[in-house]
Batch of 2 targets.
Target 1
Amino acid sequence: MSVITTQRDGDILVIVSDNPPVNALGHAVRAGLAAAISEAAGDDGIKAVVIRCDGRTFFAGADITEFGKPPLAPSLPDVVDAIEQCPKPVVAAIHGTALGGGLEVALGCHYRIAVPSAKLGLPEVKLGLLPGAGGTQRLPRVAGVADALSMIVTGDPVDAARALEIGLVDRLAGADTLAEDAIAFARDVAARAGHPVSSLRTDRIAEAANHPQVFDKFIAENARRLKGFDAPKACVEAVRAAVDRPFDEGIRLERELFMKLVSGTQSKAMRHLFFAERQAAKIDGIPADTPMIDIARVGILGAGTMGGGIAMNFLSAGLPVTLVEREQAALDRGVATIRKNYERTAARGRMTAEQVEAAMALLTPTLAYEDLADCDLVIEAVFELMEIKKEVFRRLDAIVKPGAILASNTSYLDIDEMAAETKRPEAVVGLHFFSPANIMRLLEVVRGARTSPSVLKTVMALAKKIGKIAVVSGVCPGFIGNRMLRPRQTEAQKLLLEGASPWEVDAALTEFGFPMGPFQMADLAGLDLGWTAEGSTSSTIREVLCERGRRGQKTGSGFYDYDDNRRGAPSPETEAIIAEFAAKSGLPQRKFSADEIRERLLYPMINEGAKILEEGMAQRASDIDIVWLNGYGWPAYTGGPMFWADTIGLKTVLDGLERQADALGPDFTVSSLLKSKAGAGETFN
Ligand code: T1G
Ligand code: NAD
């Protein structure tokens, strides 16, 4: 059965694509489209054409799995040109997501009609690319330069209503009558003398032609988004050509830029992450027919930094939440923080006041554990102390109904030990959210030795429902993310005693693309996490900073000194404290290059990642990449720690670790998986 079929409705030819799961514009689809268009062009009985897709969405773009393989004709640009040059008007009938090459096909059509729920976008920049089938030249001509620039450089889609507003679609169809409405629209336009041809339009680019500063303004306003990424800059250059140059020249430049990006490491890295994110959702060894547990009510224990944010995820997804604390003040504080966060979101126009009240109405705050009895899932976020966790699991096991899932938000502790405190170890799992829990998309799902397939499948599906990217980890201290963070933090601390400054160390990582370095991160989280004045012994730099009241951004100083806008500056006081400790350490002092610092911090992390793989604590290397991308700000254009290691070569990492063996110390061991793969010239992914 061909993925492209045609149907006649009187003098209208309807071209239908059916290429599940997302009608990607692979070779068969392109060839089918080209053949159908030439059929329409050659048949006088046909007055107009409709292109629509079966399944859950209109074309969601080029087939990403074809990139890097030998190209097969017809190319997508050729197909789009053929549609545009068709002597009969062509109407694109859009539902689901018209993305990338899919929107470019629609832009090649003379008219576009969409259902109200449709989304339209050019997300290529999120794959380290730019639209490569005329999108950078046709979208500005159809929707105007400002909206085109924003859509192409951010990669974010617009909804159908906005698309209508900016002229990207010409008409909205009924939610369930797209096929009929599209044929009716085609019949209407068939009677018209002329039809709009996107590539020939200039009406929407004229204004920008007179105001070229629109581009510089855009670049200035999006400097942070553009930093380190090649594709966004290329996107701006291509859209600028749509204004400054004739269409064909603009298309030539688009093609040139596309070919350069598609063969570059950044796009390879970001395409890796696209598929890695989808792979992460798959758990090896869980049969497809594994039953799931219905989650209708969620309980959260502890309304502190994490408990409140965790609760918001479920409230925002329309799930009622019972929030339990041990004292009224803490409960009131937690509820107030939830409301404040929602009201801030509403103030930014991303929620309505009604939506805030609807979410808050789903929240039941209480001091009574018994109110958790009817929950289908209870997540504890109490203090990170094993004795308290164990006591909590014993109480929950006694109170919460049979069949319900008991979960821990612990950052480091042993889930199996907690499970052993219950009569339902198969229903115990780790759900490790990241702070702020209502924002950060990563969720480490910690699979205990006895956690059942049903519980795992249920929490993975729930994670998708609350907009999280879930990654499965085995039970080990710090799971995947924090376990790899530890050697990095350790080496960062040691570098201070060997002559490097906190600002040099941080700069080495921010240059690499991290949003902040280890010392900026420590100041943000607070240097006094787990510190008490009574127990302080001035034995570490961190303790001395805390003793001196330098506890991080919240106190105006930590490693850095902060101004009123929380901008950090190197601190002479911190330098003096470090110099004292360095002198006491007796270690030789020297200058470190940024490359040396990066090797010293990142290679041990990769080594720990390899150990996590060899121990089976992560299902696949790409899962580790997804953890670091979504939980720790690893720069997307390098693909994550394991993909980056593959890019620079595992031998390079191994040689670097061996070169630093003395500095890393006697307790440091190199992963045997890393050694064997480096020796065999293999990669992790
Ligand atoms: N090519 C190949 N496979 C794709 C694909 C694509 N474009 N899009 C999705 N898949 C696979 C995906 O890997 C998964 O497979 C399954 O489909 C379901 O996807 C020339 C250069 C459309 C919003 O960037 O954003 O056009 O894991 O789990 O959550 O200018 O998929 O089941 O085996 O994500 O409902 C531009 C990419 C391409 C859009 C649906 N297009 N896709 O989300 O399902 S570049 C994109 C998405 C381009 C031209 C250029 C989402 C979705 P599996 P899913 P979903
Ligand atoms: P927190 O100190 O801000 O909040 C803990 C809350 O639990 C307090 O409000 C306390 O009153 C309450 N509590 C303590 N014992 C209780 C009990 N027996 N019954 C009911 N409530 C009780 O701590 P947090 O930062 O939210 O951390 C909570 C958990 O989440 C810890 O396990 C921590 O490791 C983990 N975690 C923290 C972060 C982070 O960045 N803070 C990130 C991920 C995971």
Target 2
Amino acid sequence: MTNKKVYITRRIPKPGFDKLAEGFEVDFYDSDDAIPHQVLVDKLKTKRYDALLCMLTDQIEKEVLDAAGPQLKIVATMSVGYDHIDLQECAARNILVANTPGVSTDSVAELTVSLLLMTARRIQEGVSAVRSGQWGDWKPKWLCGTELTGSTLGIYGLGRIGFNVGRRLKPFGFSKIYYVDVQEVSYARDIDAQFTDFEGLIKNCDFICVCCNLTPQTRHMFNKESFKRMKKNAILINTGRGGVIDHDALVEALKNGDIQAAGLDVTEPEPLPKEHPLVAMNNCVILPHMGSNTWDSRNAMAEIAARNCLAAISNKTPEGIVFVQ
Ligand code: DGY
């Protein structure tokens, strides 16, 4: 046990906690719910922590970093996304930022495919119909959805998750797969995906899966103007970050028939209030940000986040280091 200290903003799965507790003094917010911002700020002032292990619900910005003090070596988030961390503020203080890449790729890709199928085949409406006693005689035109076979798939963000979504969806027999990213990637060939620009994606695709990070470049890319240019039968799936879609514009697009349907595992805000117009819409399937909710992923995410803290404290490069551009 060294005199190094780690603060964890939530109860985390045991493999991660145990790894840290082996060598460090570990304090944590003893709850399954998010730590209130002010509680985090106040807590960080009470001791000089060397590492902060946080969640995607914690806004790690100037006030938090000021409270933590100059000895803080790393902000390690137990997530792939890091849009909740002010990277510039961390860089200015020489604080490393690390995420948990790779270990939730399969769980998020599986969930994305499930959500796409749920949305295309109107599975939520079918389940509700059975539960509410609306299942009457077999009807030729009832709850008809859209087939994947022969349609065009678009992937917005062909990183690990986007690629693995494409790999799983390819056997369904899409006629063409397009992708958008900051640049062409060689592995796209493995799923016969063709590089295009945003315009090409929205004009040509029947299904679009948003699998990117939230950045100033991707924020509200799906907005009133882009919905107008999408195919009327388009189905939009988002398992990246809610902020990539302008939700007011999505409500209008789904009402007006600018696009056919949407499946969202991430929303803006989160949680989406149950009064939000999207919640009651039949052509919108909403899940509560559960892409990486498997024990395999969550245990591995906790463990990597812990290893990232360990590495930074030992002056080594964390495996999930996030580079500030
Ligand atoms: C992530 O890791 O960023 C995911 O959104 C968590 O489910």
